[in-house]
Each structure stands twice: as C-alpha cells, then as structure tokens.
C-alpha cells in the first residue's frame, strides 16, 4: 500500500498556498472516526505491484484577525475516500496499519499547531515560523516512509505494535494541540 500525504498551507506570508476547512462528503476528518475498508472508494490503480493507495492530508489556513493582536488558524487532518483505493487482501491488520498512517498525519498537524502557537507567542518572525512548519512537513514524509520500512508495511506485527504505541503516546503528548481551530494572541511587546 502506498501512502501519499499532502499539506495545503496558507499562513499569510508563512508559506504559499492553502484552503480553509475542506467541505466534501468524500473527506473523513481525523477526529470523526477510524478508517474502514469501505472508505477506500477510488477506482483501483493500474500498477500491479501496489496493493492500494491512501490519501490523507492536512489543510492549514492562518490569517490575522487584527494584525496587531491576534492570529486565527484552522488545521484539519483529513482522509480522502475518492482518491484512496485498495485491491487484494483487506485484513484488519492492514487497516490498522493504514489508520496509523492517518494518525501520523494528525500528529504532525498537532506539531504544526504547536509551532504556530509557540512562534507567535515567542515573537518569532513569520519566516522563522514558516521554516519550522516546512521542516515538519518534510518530516512527516520521512516518518511515513520509516513506518512502512520498519514494519514491512504492517507485516511485522511486533514492530507495528511498537509504532502504534509510539504514535499514540506522541498524540497524547500533543493533546493540548488537538483542536483544529484557534486564536493566538501576539505578545504585548509587539503591540507597543
């Protein structure tokens, strides 16, 4: 199974492109429910060596409400059913493996929320915050590939369980960044 992760970003001048909360029946929000095989509704791909493809992504929109006091952000983790497909074996183990890919995207969404909040409250420049976000976006692809490599795409049950534990623990660690929307107030010193 091949996993593709996209990040759509718009953070004023933090990064370059974006969209607000996705509105589409083919999207499953991370906090809505866990994935089911029936969510993989796209037409089967043409490459025989690939058993399927799962498309999950994070959308980021950030804008200033009042340029001197507050930044509003929306960061959603979604799974796109219309672009995800599977052929062959649909085991519960493989589905759990795919769910953890989705969880890894949510973990990085939380890390991006934290980077925005920390950057704004610490008075970092938009460029500095943008660099942190870009680094996290690059990191998620590396983590997804490491996950597949280390678990043999979910075939190594022991390594799979290690990853489940690691990702769940990390999600708990970043629990305070789980809300997709928020306001961050600029430090008072920037208003003077």
TrEMBL record:
Which Pfam families does the UniProt entry name for this protein?
DUF922
Q: What is the protein name stated in its UniProt record?
A: DUF922 domain-containing protein
Organism of origin is: Reichenbachiella ulvae
